Amino acid sequence: MNRFVTAERALRTAAPHELFDAVRRVLAEEYAARCVELYLADYGLTVLQPLSPSRAVEPLPVHGSAAGRAFGAQEPFVEVVHEESVRLHLPVTVRGDRLGVLTVTLPDGDGASGLLGELADIAEVLGHEIVVAERDTDVYLRARRKDRLTLAAEMQWQLLPGRACSRPEYELGAQLEPAYAIYGDNFDWSATRDHLMLYVTNGMGEGIEASLLTNLAINALRNARRAGIAIDDQAALADQAVYAHYQGRCYLSVLMFDFELATGRAKVVDAGSPQLLRLRAGVVERVEFEAQLPLGMFEETDYVAQDFQVEPGDRLVFVSDGVHAVASPKGEAYGDAALARAITSTRLLPAAEVPRAILRELTGHRGRSVPDDDALVVCLDWHGR
Fold first, then answer.
1. Contact (CB, 8 A) for 256 and 250
2. Is the separation of the CB atoms in 290 and 305 below 8 Å?
3. Contact between residue 200 and residue 255 where contact means Cβ atoms under 8 Å apart
4. How far apart are CA 89 and CA 224, in angstroms?
5. Residue 41 near residue 62, CB atoms below 8 Å
6. Record's SUPFAM superfamilies (predicted)?
7. In contact, 308 and 318? CB cutoff 8 Å
8. Could you tell me which of 17, 73, 70, 12 has the C-alpha nearest to residue 39?
9. Which of these, 115, 149, 207, 226, has the minimum number of CB atoms within 10 Å of its CB?
């Protein structure tokens, strides 16, 4: 039997919590692997956390390690250990969502290069199996944590669709900060054959209350979306759901897009404070929409969708007010100018890398590592069909 088929079958038949044992065993038996390690990216995207139960295996930095190089570039990276051994670092990725890195040490440096493509495919299969297995085990979610999540952050991360997604027409990347103590900011997306729907949410309040408000609003939007309702009516129904529960005491800002994949035409509902900046032909500009009321502020608000056109080559960067309005130690707001510089300086990075890079620059402006408010960055690269 083909070795790849054997590996794929071993992963598909393994118990959810035993995927790493299964891949380690089959790589040792079929590929003569001397060592196999699986590293999963932590919530802050700063370190790669080992899944290995051995305490001798240390976390690796995303920036400045061989495994981190494979993770960032999303390409296999070959590290020469010594003359008769090489270490292959293979991205573990599912449809653009970067989960981590599978590291395989092989005895024959010359023969290892011929196995690179096959082992990269096994790493991809492993990624798909991990996503499915997370429905039934906490092993992989626990491994991603270098610190303890607050309860509000736990609720928010479970609500997200992923941190990146790619299709021929577009690439998406997003990140939240503080990763282990996020309150109410959120993002959501869903794609069909012909459409991409994207929501960027700026939550109100702090802690559990902020998370509960966001959970209610996002699930109301999903409920309406999955019923096949147009984007302006999705906003109206979510508005009613939030108002019915909070009676106007709490409300939620959201920027909603329904992109037509074939043409780049989009319907937009701007219900609050998230900001959009566009990089087109090397020029960064802020995109303004007609501002409408946040969800849940008043009873039975009517929402009107506006038209928007995105062109192949456009990069759209969405930010919450925890990015746009954050102040420096001298009281200077980050604002459009600093954001434009950050977007320009990260123009060569893939969409999945951009949010974290912008948040790193924001930390420098803020002058301290812990923010006072949630910070959310979403990057959409539009390729078109």
1. no
2. no
3. yes
4. 42
5. yes
6. PP2C-like
7. no
8. 70
9. 226
Residue 298 has which token pair? Answer: 């008043």
- Kindly give the confidence (pLDDT) of every residue in the chain, 385 residues in length, as a single tens digit, with 9 standing for 90 and above: 589 999 999 999 999 999 999 999 999 999 999 999 999 999 999 999 999 766 678 999 999 999 999 999 999 999 988 777 899 999 999 999 999 999 999 987 667 778 899 999 999 999 999 999 999 999 999 999 999 999 999 999 999 999 999 999 999 999 999 999 998 999 999 999 999 999 999 988 888 999 999 999 999 999 999 999 999 999 999 999 999 999 999 999 999 999 999 999 999 999 988 899 999 999 999 999 999 999 999 998 999 999 999 999 999 999 998 887 776 666 677 778 889 999 999 999 999 999 999 998 887 766 666 666 789 999 999 999 9
Asked if 266 and 309 touch (Cβ cutoff 8 Å), the reply is yes
154 near 125, Cβ under 8 Å? Answer: no
Using an 8 Å Cβ cutoff, are 183 and 374 in contact? yes
Kindly state the helix (H) or strand (E) to which residue 315 belongs, with its residue range. Answer: strand 315-319
| 300 Ramachandran zone, left/alpha/beta (phi>0; psi -120 to 50) | left
Max Cα–Cα distance, the chain, nearest Å = 72
* 3-state DSSP helix/strand/coil % of the chain, to nearest 5: 35, 30, 35
DSSP string, 212-256: HHHHHHHHHHHHHHHTT--HHHHHHHHHHHHHHHHTTSS-BEEEE
Do residues 183 and 206 make contact, with C-beta atoms less than 8 angstroms apart? yes
Q: Which two tokens stand for residue 231?
A: 């984007």
